[in-house]
Amino acid sequence: MDPRVQWHSLPTLPKSPNVNTNESHAKKKNFKEVFQTELNNATQLVFTKHAKNRMESRGISIDANKWIEIENKVVEARKKGIKESVVITEDATLLVNAQTHTIITALNRNEAKSQIFSNINGTILID
C-alpha cells in the first residue's frame, strides 16, 4: 500500500430512533379534513370592532337564517371577483369586504337611504 494514502475509519453514526410512521400519520389530519375546516372558517363573517359597535348602538339584529344567507351570498360574490360589497336586507345595510369575509360597518335601512357608498364593486340584495 502506498504510504501517502492513509486509511481513516469513519465514526459510526447513531441510529435513528424507531418512529412508527402509521402512528405519526394517524395523528395528522388528512388534507381533505384540513381543507374543509378552513373552507368552513372562511365562510363565516367576521365583525370589525367598529361594526360590532355600530350594530349594538343602532340596535341592529339579524336572525341566524338571515346570517347564513348573507354568508352564502358573500362567498358567491367573492367567487365572482367582488372585493367590497353592500349587503342590503329588510332591516339593515352592511358594508362587507368579500375577500376577507369581514363586516366593515352596519347601518339601519333608514340611515342608508341618504348615504353614498364609494369603492363598492358589488351589491347583494336580500329580502
From TrEMBL:
InterPro entries: Flagellar_put (IPR013367). Residues 1-25 are annotated as: Disordered. Keywords: Cell projection, Cilium, Flagellum. Pfam families: Flagellar_put. This is Putative flagellar hook associated protein. It comes from Halalkalibacter hemicellulosilyticusJCM 9152. The lineage of its organism: Bacteria, Bacillati, Bacillota, Bacilli, Bacillales.
